[in-house]
Amino acid sequence: MNAPEKKPQPRWARRKDARPEEIIAAALDLFVERGFASTRLDDVAARAGVSKGTLYLYFENKKDLFKAVVRGNVLPVLQHGEDLVEKFSGSSADLVRRLVRGWWEMTGSTKIAGIPKLVIAEAGNFPDLAKFYYDEVILRALSMFRRVLQRGTDTGEFREVDVDHLVHVALAPLVMLAVWRHSFACCEHEQLQPERYLDTYLDMLLHGLRKPQAPEKSHARKKS
């Protein structure tokens, strides 16, 4: 006698070993697509292919899940940059270039770049999430870039500047590029080209930081 045919199980039941990383990946997709307020945990669970009960085994609520998304996707990029700053032995200008290009490769060109736009858009309604992002991401990014600017100033490669304010000026165009790509890019008649944008940004920033060279003294003898 043939064994009775087993009924297909729900997708979530076949994946009891689902890792929290799968839920975080699904949450990143939905947060970027819909924003924080419009993302439902039911939808995150469905996108991840788990039950809502399984999601709650790992995350207490939606805010807890959002923090996990930031810590799992944004903080590793910051750590990578901090390690580079700590070990880099080249010029400060080259370090700036490496950081900016690395940011684009690891964040700006990925879905992670949608997180800053989400935080800016919803900070008024969810100030505790904005405070979390400010404390764990923005302050760290500012501190890292401040170290680079101060490094260049201390070695005489960069001119004396107001580092505490310049660091905000230096990072603002990168934030704007990320926000633009997840908002107005869909409306552009001529699409902004990120690589050219970054080339222009680096050219302006590094030329503005460059310490002027002292004029060479003439050793020519005056004719008597």
Secondary-structure blueprint:
Layout: H1 20-34, H2 41-48, H3 52-58, H4 62-73, H5 75-87, H6 92-108, H7 114-122, H8 127-154, H9 163-181, H10 194-209
Helix pairs in contact: 1-2, 1-4, 1-7, 4-8, 5-6, 5-8, 6-8, 8-9, 9-10
Short note summarizing the structure:
The protein is an all-alpha fold and 224 residues long. It is 64% helix and 0% strand.
Question: Can you give a write-up of this model?
Answer:
- The protein has 224 residues and is mainly α.
- It has two domains: 55 residues, Arc Repressor Mutant, subunit A; 136 residues, Tetracycline Repressor, domain 2.
- The protein is 64% helix and 0% strand.
- It is built from ten helices and no strands.
- The chain is elongated, with a radius of gyration of 24 Å.
- The chain starts with 19 loop residues before the first helix and ends in a 15-residue tail after the last helix.
Overall structural domain count: 2
Helix share bin = 55-70%
Distance between the termini: 122 Å
Q: Which stretches are poorly predicted, pLDDT < 50 over at least 5 residues?
A: 8-15
**What is the average per-residue confidence, as pLDDT, rounded to a whole number?**
90
Helix- and strand-based class? Answer: mainly alpha
Specify the CATH architecture of the largest domain. Answer: Orthogonal Bundle
Largest beta-sheet details = none
- The CATH topology label of the largest domain is Tetracycline Repressor, domain 2
**Total helical segments:** 10
Number of strands: 0
Helix-strand topology string: HHHHHHHHHH
CATH class of the largest domain: Mainly Alpha
Residues in β-strands, percent: under 5%
Over the alpha carbons, how many angstroms does the gyration radius reach?
24 Å
Shape: elongated
